[in-house]
Amino acid sequence: MAFSQYLVRYFLVENAENSIFKDWEFLILVLSTVLIAAGGYIINDYFDVKIDQINKPDEVFVGRIIKRRYALLIHQILSGMGVVLGLFLSWKILLVNSFSVTILWFYASIFKKKPFSGNLIVAFLTALSISEIALYYEPGRIIIHIYALFAFFINLIREIIKDMEDMKGDAAHGSKTLPIFLGIRKTKNIIYSLLVLFVALVLILLAKLSNFNLWLCFGILGLLLLLMLYKLILADRKKHFAELSRICKIIMLLGVASIVFV
Q1: Is the separation of the CB atoms in 203 and 233 below 8 Å?
Q2: DSSP state of 18
Q3: pTM for the whole thing?
Q4: Cys bridge to 123: 24, 78, 156, 215, which one at CB 3.0-4.6 A?
């Protein structure tokens, strides 16, 4: 996340300082985002101990390595630090940070077990970590919002795919995620619709910019999206959805790396 934010700041914000790491205001912005995200991961693990013991038993730390009450305390400290750092920047960033901490708590405790709403929250907060850079420096910078839109849709799709991968553990503990609520076939149809909507919105925004490199980068990413679509059509087992999740990670990584070339 920090790497992505620095790439956006250095390559997409006009008049960025040559010595980017001496930009202390931006360092505070990045640090606050990372602290809040770390706190969000912890509170998510705090509420998901029983589910994770089924879905990914080797990755369970809360309750096994770290006591639950200590995990909760660490979450509160990290999240609180992230909010306080926002005070040093602007009231807009303070509001963004406060909102992020609040919604992460409700996501982990309530919305993660609900169909679609939990996926939407994670995707929105991921996109917000990009858009808040434009909010602080250049609110009208379209190219930054294109990458925020990219982060939103790819993360939303990946979150839904992860729910298909984790159906067994989620169902065992009463979660009503999208694939449990609608079934695999209808959930796939939703992903297909999201892909179409994503491509349409990106094309509309790209049409506003005369940037050949940006078109080229998103064209290459489009080929990977086609690969993911092909594998999604055939997927019907846990290992297939795990592979799709990895492909989403690769697409996200390449999408972030493409910032250097636009």
Answers
A1: no
A2: S
A3: 0.85
A4: 156
DSSP lists the bridge partners of residue 62 as 66
Q: Rounded to whole angstroms, how far apart are CA atoms 169 and 21?
A: 43
Is residue 194 within 8 A of residue 153, CB to CB? The reply is: yes
User: Tokens standing for 78?
Assistant: 């990290």
In the chain, which stretches have pLDDT less than 50? none
Please, are residues 35 and 81 in contact by the beta-carbon 8 Å criterion? Answer: yes
15: left (phi over 0), alpha (psi -120 to 50) or beta: left
CA-CA distance, 128 to 108, in Å (whole number)? 18
Quick check: helix, strand or coil at residue 62?
A: strand
- In angstroms, the CA 218 to CA 222 distance is 6
Evaluate whether 108 touches 46 at the Cβ level (below 8 Å). Answer: yes
CA 71, 74, 78, 80 torsion-angle sign: positive
pLDDT at 20: 58
Q: Which residues pair with 66 in a beta bridge?
A: 62
Hey, CA dihedral for 224, 227, 233, 234, is it positive or negative?
A: negative
Nearest-angstrom CA–CA distance, 56 and 168: 11
Integer Cα distance of 36 and 227 in angstroms:
33
- Residue 50 has a pLDDT of 58
Long-range contacts of 254-258 (CB under 8 A, 24+ apart): 254/220, 254/221, 254/224, 255/147, 255/150, 255/151, 255/154, 255/217, 255/221, 256/3, 256/4, 256/7, 258/217, 258/218, 258/220, 258/221
Helices 142-165 and 212-234 cross at an angle (nearest 10°) of: 10
